[in-house]
Amino acid sequence: MDKFFLLPLLSLLIIAYGVSGSIDPESDIDMVKELETFDIEEQDDNVVDTYAIPVWKSERGSRSLMNVDSFDAVGDGITDDTMAFRKAWETACSAAKSVLLVPKEKRYLVNATTFKGPCNDGMIIQIEGTIIAPDEPEKWDPKLPRQWLEFTKLNAATFQGDGVIDGSGEKWWAESCKKNKSRPCKGAPTALTIDSSSNIRVKGLTIQNSQQMHFTIARSETVRITEVRVSSPGDSPNTDGIHITQSMNVVVQNCKISTGDDCISIVNASSGIKMKGISCGPGHGISIGSLGKDNSAGIVSKVVLDTAFLRETTNGVRIKTWQGGSGYVRAIRFENVRMQDVENPIIIDQFYCDSPNACETQTSAIKVSQIMYRNISGTTTSKNAMKFACSDSVPCSNIILSNVNLEKTDGTVETYCHAAQGFGYGVVHPSADCLTSSDNDFAAKDQTQLPTEQHIVHTEL
């Protein structure tokens, strides 16, 4: 950070907080500097570079081609090709420099399957055709209730192509308790899962109409996802676009996501996550969380969203935690984000309650701190353009706003704060002066606005 910028910022901090003595300006300058400069590399030399190698087209090339058709796959969209895919996988997994090819202009019906490694490093999964899931929930394999296509224990593997992974999720959505109140709430399969893997690249694929979540990265590290498209209707329940859990060093870049839940969700034990060039909408925005459900621990740190466009989503950039959790969310930077008709452009919600029943009031909470919002602009459909609803017992701290400008086309906008501390510099509209006030100060100004645990309950049902 430029030293000439630090001097006025330091003065601002002293003016804003010097009277209360609640923060140390020097330490906060260090925090701002760290939040503004930390980053995650978008490319990694340890990942096998295979994108420019077209040898998968030829069996005489330097790679071994395993075409699923050579293992008796039919590709008519009716015949069950599961066994052909499994055989092709086993052969490709054990071969050096192999390419597993799903040919274009065909539709392959494949049942729930785990494609297990370890395999030889440098394997390419080239998807040019369409892989479709069975569309009847009653006929789903009960041994694999939460997955469709799962790839596990891979290293230096690449998933690429212009093909489609189609979860055929319409009947699953109709059975969801969020659409049919008479049905019990239960999980459904994730279309594509990469688990317990490292040095993975995914490029160019389309994942659509998932039964529930579209694409999950779990217990993995050094993953690069580029130019992936996720698509499902805006009313499809729980269909998160890209879900990251227990993973490190993940980059999601130049992806277009339209779905019925979070476009991207980042949950427990994830760190070093970068999202860049993201288009989101419809959907529920880009979220950290939810965390802390059922009194669980949750930790997420070092997350960057740089350059995104969100259109007609229910949330913009969101952090959501349940009451009763423990752990922390910290060192997060949301920047260069444009919103268009977003209901909640900037929101921290520590009273998240995705349940048909009211959630129990609890005092413990996940600590949310060191959150930066920089260069955020656009329009909102709600009165509260910014909302910081934090725990009374574990308040949010060090929320930083810089160059934020949010407008409502047919009215004025406000900032809502509860148990939240922070500051802004540069343009901040609407004003976030409530961040610098304690709840007692806020109550003294307007007793009618003092929030209570009973009515700060948020649900997506």
Automatic annotation (TrEMBL):
Its EC number is 3.2.1.15. Keywords: Cell wall, Cell wall biogenesis/degradation, Glycosidase, Hydrolase, Repeat, Secreted, Signal. It is found in: Secreted, Cell wall. GO terms for molecular function: polygalacturonase activity. It holds the Pfam family Glyco_hydro_28. Residues 1-21 form the signal peptide. It catalyses: (1,4-alpha-D-galacturonosyl)n+m + H2O = (1,4-alpha-D-galacturonosyl)n + (1,4-alpha-D-galacturonosyl)m. The active site is at 284. Its main location: secreted. GO terms for biological process: carbohydrate metabolic process; cell wall organization. PROSITE patterns: POLYGALACTURONASE. PANTHER family: PTHR31375. Belongs to the glycosyl hydrolase 28 family. This is endo-polygalacturonase. It comes from Cucurbita moschata.
